[in-house]
Amino acid sequence: MFQEMTVKGLEPELSRMAARQQQEIAELRNLHRQELEAVELRSARRTTELMDDLRADLVRDKEEAIQREIAAQRIKYVFLVYFSFIMKEADCKILVLLNGLFHWYELFKKLVEESIALRLLEVTPFIRV
To answer: Rounded distance, CA 67 to CA 88, Å?
Structure first.
């Protein structure tokens, strides 16, 4: 009976202790959950910052690549314009040279024909038919 009274007398205290322990456990779980949420939130923010930084780097790299390509195309255009100018100039020079050569050829041909005609005239009196 004494034992029963002691146990019955301690029951409310044990119940309060168990309830307090359950409350502490619930508070610890809640605190742990809040800390996990805070860590996840920091991690998500950091990931977002890294993605934004990478996106900015990619945009900057893309713009630089575009500028390099534009510069290369400008150089190519200038080269092509210059080359076509040189080719037109060369074509004109070649045509002038060809016309000069054709003129000399015609002159030489005429001289050869005249020379042959003169020789034929010189030789013709001696030919008897």
So the answer is: 31
φ and ψ at 50, to 5 degrees? -65, -40
Structure tokens at 53: 């930084």
Block means of pLDDT (10 residues each) for the chain, 129 residues, are: 65 88 96 97 97 96 96 93 88 86 90 84 65
Please give the Cα distance from 103 to 110 (Å, whole number): 11
Model pTM above 0.70? no
Q: Which pair of structure tokens corresponds to residue 38? A: 């805070």
Measured from the Cβ of residue 32, the count of other Cβ atoms closer than 10 Å reads 10
Structure tokens at 20: 């307090």
SS3 content of the chain, % helix, strand, coil (to 5): 95, 0, 5
Domain boundaries, the chain: 2-126
The span from the CA of 55 to the CA of 23, in Å, is 47
Which residue type is seen at 114? E
